[in-house]
Specification:
Layout (H helix, E strand, L loop, with lengths): L2 H11 L4 H8 L3 H8 L7 H10 L4 H8 L8 H5 L3 H14 L1 H10 L1 H7 L3 E6 L2 H4 L3 H13 L3 E6 L2 H10 L6 E2 L2 E2 L3 H22 L14 E3 L4 E5 L2 E2 L2 E2 L4 E6 L1 H9 L2 E5 L2 E3 L5 E3 L2 H11 L4 E6 L4 E2 L5 E2 L1 E3 H13 L8 H15 L4 E6 L5 H7 L6 E4 L4 E5 L5 H13 L8 H6 L4 E6 L2 E11 L4 E9 L8 H16 L3 E6 L3 H5 L4 E3 L6 H6 L7 E6 L1
Parallel strand pairs: 1-2, 1-13, 2-10, 5-10, 13-17, 16-18, 22-23
Antiparallel strand pairs: 3-4, 6-9, 7-8, 11-12, 14-15, 17-18, 19-20, 20-21, 21-22, 23-25, 24-25
Length: about 525
């Protein structure tokens, strides 16, 4: 169920009209209707207002969007609580054991890939103040058990604000940066110390019959970050606000080598003995770059990055991210871009440009968000990479299994002629594959007929999960260019089901006698395939 449908069901359960909800959240009823229908994305600010109006939390709405509605009784739908959700989750699990097994099997490649990798995970102080770190610690324990090397970077903004308010001090900011005077710096130190102690305590849990049972997480923290003052910006002295000068990567690596989890606070220290207040993003990106981390993960309020139309972007390159930020800056009505994105997306771009392979932006409100993002095919948030995840190349013998997985369903349906593993292995040099993040999602073959300077285009197959994005076209034109570079003058193909696809790409129907002589001898008149050709 989508988040929009979840909002609609919760509204209906409260007998609230769409106009009444619009009045409560100060939004247009037409836009709310589009959100419920899934035609418009939803910002975290609007989601919070809607959740408050519907007497629930954003986390509850996210959870319901992942849970079949039938799993909850009418009373449970009206009165959500932990016992209800636990009971419903149990019923969902019992009825979806097969789905769980399939997911667990599909996660195997990720489990193999992540062992020994370094992940930097950054989150704001809200995760601790709103008691979300308990669930997060369960996921961290799971990653640690898979031998993932973990570096955590926490924020402390709400805790700092709380202490400033307690001491009757007025927070001061300049262009989004805190002006940290002596009094504010004392609040910063106290807040960071309290957050760090609470995180260490929660990571020390080992309660039986819980996800932390048997956990043996040792936490290391210290003066790993060297900082310098930001100084005076546009005439404003930021005082104890600083920026990262250097991260002690060697010191952190030693702790990781000892199977310890490293915890970094947004504080840095100078050779003169001063402490500086740093931003969460600066520390996280600097640590990820210094450690050559495999992944940088930001937990934030919104579910990911949306474009200006409100569509969630599952993947984007650093260049596309920069273009989006430029468009947002030029568009004052970019309502789908949350405050978090303005902080974290530039940080993701900086990380990618400095060698971090993957940066993930995911919601802190979704239980198990890290697991869903890392161990499922599509993930649940936005992944930013330096280069596109998709590439095309000539196949090799290691690709045979992936090719068979693609073509066997099409062979069973009669779209393709049956080929066995041995057949594919013998002809592997004629195949080309399309990869998405090292996973084969498409294949095609070019069989040469050199005397006629013709090539047969065959065996085109795209993974069902990736169809509809023009990938068949990309693979076809890639193969056509390869044939042209080799020196072939034309392509031909045989098909029984997809003649219109080839006609739309410039092929024309031909008679069997137009085929190369060698191919004519192999033509199966019982299958009665149609012949199409295209001049290169």
């Amino acid at each position: 169920m989508t988040i929009g449908l979840t909002i609609r069901h919760q509204r209906k359960a409260l007998n609230m009209t769409l106009q009444a909800l619009a009045n409560k959240v100060g939004a247009d009823a037409g836009n709310l209707s589009r959100i419920e229908r899934g035609e418009l994305g939803i910002s975290e600010t609007i989601l919070r207002k809607i959740a408050e109006a519907l007497n629930c939390t954003p986390a509850y709405l996210y959870l319901q969007s992942d849970m079949p509605k039938a799993a909850l009784s009418a009373q449970e739908q009206r009165q959500p609580n932990l016992t209800t959700l636990s009971h419903a989750a149990g019923k969902v699990h019992a009825s979806n054991v097969k789905e769980f097994v399939n997911w667990f099997r599909s996660a195997a490649p990720y489990i193999h890939a992540f062992g020994g990798s370094t992940f930097v995970i950054a989150f704001g102080g809200e995760v601790v103040s709103e008691q979300q770190f308990v669930a997060l610690s369960h996921d961290l324990n799971l990653l640690a058990s898979l031998e993932v090397r973990l570096v955590l970077v926490h924020g402390a903004r709400p805790q700092i604000e709380q202490r400033l308010k307690r001491d009757k001090l007025t927070p001061a900011f300049h262009n989004g940066l805190r002006v940290t005077d002596d009094a504010a710096m004392e609040a910063v130190k106290e807040a960071n110390g309290a957050v760090r102690v609470e995180i260490e305590a929660l990571l020390s849990m080992g309660i039986a019959n819980s996800p932390m049972a048997g956990a043996d997480i040792r936490v290391a923290s210290g003066n790993f970050v060297t900082a310098k003052p930001m100084g005076v910006r546009e005439g404003v002295d930021l005082q104890h606000t600083g920026e990262v000068r250097r991260v002690d990567a060697v010191g952190i690596q030693k702790r990781l080598d000892d199977n310890e989890l490293v915890l970094l606070s947004p504080l840095g220290y100078s050779p003169t003995g001063e402490a500086f207040n740093l931003s969460l993003e600066d520390v996280a990106v600097s640590a990820a770059v210094a450690l050559d981390a495999d992944k940088l993960i930001f937990l934030m309020d919104s579910e990911g990055v949306h474009n200006l139309r409100g569509e969630l972007l599952r993947e984007m390159t650093a260049e596309k991210a920069k273009n989006l930020l430029r468009n947002v800056k030029d568009n004052e009505q970019a309502i789908n871009i949350s405050e978090d994105i303005n902080y974290y997306l530039p940080a993701a771009v900086r990380a990618c440009e400095h060698g971090v392979a993957r940066t993930h932006l995911i919601s802190r409100h979704i239980d198990g968000a890290i697991i869903q993002e890392l161990f499922t095919l599509d993930g649940i948030g936005t992944m930013v990479t330096e280069l596109s995840l998709e590439s095309m190349r000539q196949a090799n013998i290691d690709d045979v299994g992936g090719i068979l997985k693609l073509i066997e369903p099409l062979e069973a349906e009669g779209f393709l002629v049956r080929r066995g593993r041995e057949h594919i292995e013998m002809e592997i040099e004629h195949f080309y594959v399309m990869e998405h993040d090292n996973r084969i999602i498409g294949c095609a073959a070019l069989y040469p007929f050199k005397s006629e300077r013709m090539a047969e285009f065959a065996c085109l197959a795209i993974d069902p999960a990736y169809r509809g994005g023009g990938r068949g076209d990309k693979l076809f034109y890639f193969c056509a260019n390869q044939a042209k570079e080799i020196g072939f003058k034309s392509l031909f193909c045989l098909t029984t089901r997809t003649e219109h696809w080839f006609l739309e790409r410039g092929f024309t129907e031909q008679s069997v006698d137009k085929l190369p002589a060698e191919k004519q001898k192999l033509y199966n008149f019982q299958r009665n395939s149609k012949v199409f050709s295209k001049t290169l």
